[in-house]
UniProtKB/TrEMBL annotation:
Protein name in the entry: 2,3-diaminopropionate biosynthesis protein SbnB
Pfam families in the cross-refs: OCD_Mu_crystall (PF02423)
Database matches in InterPro entries: NAD(P)-bd_dom_sf (IPR036291), ODC_Mu_crystall (IPR003462), ODC_N (IPR023401), SbnB (IPR023866)
Length: 333
């Protein structure tokens, strides 16, 4: 109990590189556990800065029962201006605590954990929502780390892709994602306009947009799937024309997300068909004549569950760094 474990970023990345199937399974199981009431996932807490209005640091506390039975908190910084210096936008740590005593157990570098759980969430939803028997045409609106990781997890989760179109305001970012898609999937790739991206079977939004720019009159078609990962790209009128699946209703309908704006516009939540956990349980009915939008706010329990697995795996592989006598006092008297 007096010891503490640190799992550095290099160790986390090495484990995640060959653990896509494990992460997909863990994320799906965690959604179901959340649906069954085995979790505590309070609101996220946002730290903002008057001199840096586009930057923020978010705290995501959580508890997950079952075989995880652990407390955790992710502390993730989003500084979009980093991109101009060639740095990743996000950085994060994950702190795990023992549920029996509350004592801290471990700290993991968590930017890659956050990206992996976000991507796995999108891939789990896509596998449930994409009904096409043939490979689907996929587009990415936004070409950063999250988009790249989602592409990897779509592939790992068996979503067959016919070709990939990328739209990004930054040509360099678009080029990197196109090269990655061509190498990873071996399918035709191309850069394109937003209008072209919105015609694809599966559209992935992974931007830093603060307000909707995809208008309510945008033509969508039956069976089309939009993964609204960045949450604020779509006008509320567009959601009202679609099936809507979220990760958690209360969490997703806040912070001026597209679903939150839709609730404000209509005064209700009837436009939401259900949660991903309920969808995995077969308890959500969707209208096949409509497109479907999946909006994941991002639950701390996903980071916690993936981090718990990585901690065990790092210890097994010998890549965890143990700090002896981290707790100063282990006896009350």
């Amino acid at each position: 109990m007096a010891n503490f474990t640190v799992v550095p970023g290099a160790a986390v990345s090495a484990i995640l590189a060959d653990s896509h199937k494990d992460v997909l399974r863990i994320v799906a199981e965690t959604y179901v556990a959340h649906e069954e009431g085995q979790s505590v996932n309070p609101d996220s807490y946002f730290l903002r800065f008057p001199e840096k209005p586009n930057a923020r640091v978010i705290a995501l506390p959580s508890y997950l029962g079952g075989t995880v039975d652990t407390i955790g908190i992710k502390w993730i910084a989003s500084f979009p201006d980093n991109i101009q210096q060639g740095l990743p936008r996000a950085s994060a740590t994950l702190l795990l605590n023992d549920y029996a005593t509350g004592y801290p157990l471990a700290c993991l570098e968590a930017a890659s954990i956050s990206a992996a759980r976000t991507a796995a969430s999108a891939a789990v939803a896509a596998a449930e929502l994409v009904a096409a028997e043939e490979p689907v045409r996929v587009s990415f609106v936004g070409a950063g780390v999250i988009a790249r990781t989602i592409l990897d997890y779509l592939h790992a989760n068996g979503v067959a892709v016919a070709d990939v179109l990328v739209h990004d305001l930054d040509d360099t970012s678009a080029g990197h994602l196109l090269a990655h898609a061509a190498e990873r999937l071996g399918v035709p790739v191309a850069a394109g306009s937003l209008a072209q991206a919105l015609t694809r079977d599966l559209v992935v939004f992974a931007t830093t947009a603060a307000t909707p720019y995809v208008g309510g009159d945008t033509p969508l078609r039956a069976g089309q799937v939009l993964l609204n990962v960045s949450l604020r790209d779509l006008a509320p009128e567009l959601l009202l024309k679609s099936n809507n699946v979220v990760d958690d209703v209360d969490h997703c309908l806040k912070a001026q997300t597209s679903p939150h704006l839709t609730e404000q516009l209509t005064g209700g939540r009837d436009f939401i068909n259900g949660t991903l956990g309920a969808l995995l349980q077969g308890r959500v009915t969707l209208d096949p004549a409509r497109p479907t939008v999946f909006s994941p706010f991002g639950l701390g329990i996903l980071d916690l569950a993936v981090g718990h697995h990585l901690l065990g795996e790092a210890r097994r592989r010998g890549s965890a760094v143990e700090i002896p006598d981290f707790i100063g006092e282990t006896s009350r008297w």
